[in-house]
């Protein structure tokens, strides 16, 4: 494939990516999409000038090759800026503009104007540094939900670093007279092909990222209770079964905590259903703030919550449950301070044997019933109640 054809391919890629990215930006208003739109715009600007140049138009040096080389750098810069924005890292736009201006100025120097090899030897080190920065940023990301996307980006930048370093070495040898002029032209052609492959990989990864974000958002809506943000009941079966099987396999305890708002009907009757919703949301917030990262909380019913505590014995579960109960008793919803509420709590613990999450919930529910029966605003553990009866 000749260089003119590759320019047409890159022009199509740049325009298509720009069109899609600007539409996505208008829909989502996420700044990193705007940065990537500018990156794709640099690609088609570069390709347009390249097509005019290869078609026999006599263009001034300040336009070609100074601007196309600056556009190449702009692709890497705007991709890097978008990654910084998407991963919520600090990025100064002033640095981006400074590097763009510096690149253009370098390409106007006498050394750069002497030969294409000189221009490549001046521009490639900056390109390599920007690609290494992007790869380093991607490797450090810990977001499991976007891990596949970051791997795609990483592979694109790794490929680009390898080809840029290889071309830099080969052009250095070319200056020493080892390669012929024909070999040099082949390397330039490979450079055009490399930017085509890199653009396909990176802009494909950009679109894949947007798809993953929307998928995660939809999954979050499907899995979470709209009022409180905790897991809804539809996930209960899957998550509890998984945790109990894991506890059986690792020979660990697993506890369930069920809490219910005391006299919740009175809250609705006295202060209205809006106040009742705020109380529910507040209690969910308090409970979440007392849990560990690997604990799970579900909205089990209208005013009931179920908490799964992996690797937690009965004493530790009672301690966590009591901590939640006390925090609820001592606090109130900020936007509805008059509607104070308390909770009754029931706890059950799996220790060994065949895991049965439904049976464990029944035990926690029975303990909750006893907590309400004995005066509310207290915590009871099912196993302790059974021991007392014996």
UniProtKB/TrEMBL annotation:
It comes from the Bacteria. PROSITE patterns: GGDEF (PS50887). It catalyses: 2 GTP = 3',3'-c-di-GMP + 2 diphosphate. InterPro entries: Diguanylate_Cyclase, GGDEF_dom, Nucleotide_cyclase, Rev_trsase/Diguanyl_cyclase. SUPFAM superfamilies: Nucleotide cyclase (SSF55073). It holds the Pfam family GGDEF. Keywords: Membrane, Transmembrane, Transmembrane helix. CDD domains: GGDEF. Its EC number is 2.7.7.65. Residues 252-384 form the GGDEF domain. The keyword Membrane applies. The chain crosses the membrane at residues 6-25, 32-53, 59-81, 93-114, 120-139, 148-170, 190-211. PANTHER family: DIGUANYLATE CYCLASE DGCM-RELATED, REGULATORY COMPONENTS OF SENSORY TRANSDUCTION SYSTEM. This is diguanylate cyclase. It comes from Alishewanella maricola.
């Amino acid at each position: 494939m000749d260089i003119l054809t590759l320019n047409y391919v890159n022009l199509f890629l740049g325009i298509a990516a720009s069109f899609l990215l600007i539409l996505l930006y208008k829909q989502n208003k996420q700044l990193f999409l705007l940065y990537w739109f500018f990156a794709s715009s640099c690609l088609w600007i570069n390709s347009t000038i390249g097509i005019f140049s290869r078609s026999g138009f006599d263009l001034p040096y300040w336009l070609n090759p100074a601007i196309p080389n600056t556009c190449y750098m702009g692709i890497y810069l705007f991709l890097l800026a978008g990654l910084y924005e998407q991963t919520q890292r600090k990025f100064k736009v002033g640095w981006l503009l400074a590097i763009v201006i510096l690149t253009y100025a370098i390409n106007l120097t006498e050394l750069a104007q002497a030969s294409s090899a000189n221009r490549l030897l001046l521009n490639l080190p900056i390109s390599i540094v920007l690609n290494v920065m992007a790869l380093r940023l991607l490797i450090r990301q810990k977001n499991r939900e976007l891990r596949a996307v970051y791997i795609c980006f990483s592979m694109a930048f790794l490929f680009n670093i390898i080809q840029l370093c290889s071309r830099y070495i080969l052009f250095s040898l070319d200056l020493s007279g080892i390669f012929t002029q024909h070999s040099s032209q082949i390397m330039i052609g490979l450079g055009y092909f490399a930017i085509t492959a890199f653009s396909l990989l990176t802009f494909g990864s950009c679109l894949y990222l947007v798809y993953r974000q929307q998928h995660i958002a939809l999954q979050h809506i499907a899995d979470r209770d709209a009022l409180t943000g905790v897991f809804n009941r539809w996930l209960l079966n899957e998550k509890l079964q998984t945790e109990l099987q894991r506890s059986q396999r690792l020979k660990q305890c697993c506890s369930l905590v069920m809490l219910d708002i005391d006299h919740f009907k009175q809250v609705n009757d006295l202060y209205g259903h809006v106040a009742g919703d705020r109380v529910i949301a507040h209690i969910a917030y308090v409970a979440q703030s007392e849990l560990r990262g690997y604990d799970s909380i579900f909205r089990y019913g209208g005013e009931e919550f179920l908490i799964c505590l992996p690797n937690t014995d009965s004493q530790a579960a009672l301690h966590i449950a009591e901590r939640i109960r006390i925090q609820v008793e001592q606090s109130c919803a900020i936007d509805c301070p008059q509607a104070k509420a308390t909770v009754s709590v029931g706890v059950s613990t799996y220790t060994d044997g065949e895991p049965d999450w439904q049976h464990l919930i029944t035990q926690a529910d029975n303990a909750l019933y006893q907590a309400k029966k004995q005066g509310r605003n207290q915590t009871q553990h099912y196993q302790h109640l059974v021991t007392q009866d014996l």
